[in-house]
Amino acid sequence: MSRLPLLLLPGLLCDARLWRDQAAGLADIARPVVADLTRDDGLAAMAARALAAVEGPFAMAGLSMGGYVAMEVMRRAPERVVRLALLDTSARPDTPEQSRHRRGLIAMTRTGRFRGVTPRLLPRLLHPDHLGGALAAEVEAMAGRVGRDAFLRQQAAILARPDSRPDLPGIAVPTLVAVGEADVLTPPALAREIAEAVPGAVLRVLPGCAHLTTMEAPEAVTAMLRDWLA
Is 6 within 8 Å of 229 (Cβ atoms)? Predict the structure, then answer.
């Protein structure tokens, strides 16, 4: 029996490490492919590159910025997606305050002050229980690997993203929406908004997690995705 391709879409300043445990844990029932979202400065180009990485129909999971790309894929090629999972993300565009903050980070980075994910930012990404240990160091290292230039491209793409809320009622595949209970970047209320708008969507709130649920609760997320694929 052939395994269904599983397209995994990372978030801002994230690489394949974000999905490492899920890719390994689901390899017996799916063919995981982690998209490269570091090379383009627009969601359309990111989505096109991700689509080119898989053939035929596929399941798709995106976290944070990866969720924005997943919604763009659904606009471009909905006939190819057979299952959709949106983790720790939002269907909304930036608020004016978020846009100002994002432009400030872009300006700071262009003047040579790129620091990736610093200890100061980690409390917005990880649950308090996961700060100060090996997981926090892995998040910092991952951001360092993605680097300054990709960060600028990704921020430009995020800044220009459309409002995806009008598209949600038209999603017609089994959809899982998940979020960390302590996610302050894309809080549970935003996940609930998505789940309520997508027909038949299932919402899961993960205890003891913030924004990077795939790394914070790898076994629980892998089990959740296994059920979703089944």
Answer: yes
Share of the chain above pLDDT 90, in %: 83
Residue 29, CA distances (Å) to 5, 17, 147, 204 in order: 9, 20, 33, 21
Residue that wins the pLDDT comparison between 16 and 122: 16
pLDDT in tens, 53-109: 999 999 999 999 999 999 999 999 999 999 999 999 999 999 988 898 888 888 888
Q: Three-state SS for 224?
A: helix
Beta carbons of 139 and 118 less than 8 angstroms apart:
no
CA dihedral over 40, 69, 19, 88, signed as positive or negative: positive
Token pair, residue 11, equals 């978030």
CA distance 161 to 167: 13
**Sheet strands (E) in 66-201:** 81-87, 175-180
**Which helix or strand (DSSP H or E) is residue 34 part of?**
strand 30-34
Enumerate domains of the chain plus CATH numbers. 4-94+156-229 (3.40.50.1820)
Q: Are 204 and 177 a contacting pair, CB within 8 Å?
A: yes
pTM over 0.90: yes
> With contact defined as beta carbons under 8 Å apart, do 207 and 181 qualify?
yes
Q: Determine the average pLDDT of the residues in 216-228.
A: 98
